[in-house]
Amino acid sequence: MRRRGSVFLVVTALLAMTASPSQASLHRNQKVTLTVFAASSLGQTFTAIGKVFEAKNPGVNVEFSFLASSTLATQMLAGAPVDVFASASETDMRTVKTLVPSSVIFAANRVVLAAPRDDRIHINKIMDLNKRGVKWIQCAHVVPCGAAADAALASESRVTSKPVSFEPKVSSAVAKLISGEVDAAIIFHSDFIANRSTLREIRFKNSVAATTRYPIGVVKTSSQQSLAKAFVDTVISAYGRKVLAEAGFIRAS
After folding, report:
1. pTM higher than the cut 0.70
2. Which of 86, 59, 58, 61 is nearest to 72 (CA)?
3. In the chain, N or C terminus with fewer CB closer than 10 Å?
4. What is the fold, at CATH topology level, of the domain defined by 109-203?
5. Residue extents of the structural domains in the chain
6. If we measure between CA atoms, which residue out of 235, 242, 243 comes closest to residue 53?
7. Which tens digit of pLDDT belongs to each residue from 18-56?
8. What is the Cα 174 distance to its own chain's centre?
9. For the domain bounded by 32-108+213-246, which CATH number is listed?
10. Where are the beta strands (DSSP E) in 17-152?
């Protein structure tokens, strides 16, 4: 009886040993989602960086939400689950300081006045916004591209016309300009680069006033701390800087 009991225990142990690796393997094969909130102007670059990050980290799925930084900050404060926040404004990053206690500046961008290449109104300088009948737009004051536009226009001081609308994010301004709804729009230089086959840009004289800096950080409530840090490291790496530079972003000083 003792021998039979011993054999039973050995078989049971062997079955347990053979079951363990498959269960561990099943866990490893489960998809892990990393949620990244990023300014809408980062859509193209972060999508490219995300694909490379997923390739280097099998089983990881990077989910992006690209909206105005102020909108994303509001969603975070309301409890939206997020692992990484990349803002187009240091102001919006300060708004979520309790959630992102540490951040790093990884890039900068500047607003420009953009017009179609086949522009019939001949918008060639900022003051041309004062021409009769010119319809132009900018981002809302509370979003980064709008705040930078306000500062850039204030530095010019002689623009007396008003935009026909204030867009909720820069991608909306770009879409309206490309579709022909308006004659000109104040957008980011990186958005001009992405559409330079159809757009022209006119730069503001005061480049400092027209510039905004981009911070990124790990959200302290994230359940994927190591992965979130790895994503931030990828963004600030030589590869990340190259992708951003090619898209028209300025290296952070």
Report:
1. yes
2. 86
3. N
4. D-Maltodextrin-Binding Protein; domain 2 (3.40.190)
5. 32-108+213-246, 109-203
6. 235
7. 333 333 333 355 789 999 999 999 999 999 999 999 999
8. 16
9. 3.40.190.10
10. 32-39, 60-67, 84-86, 104-116, 136-139
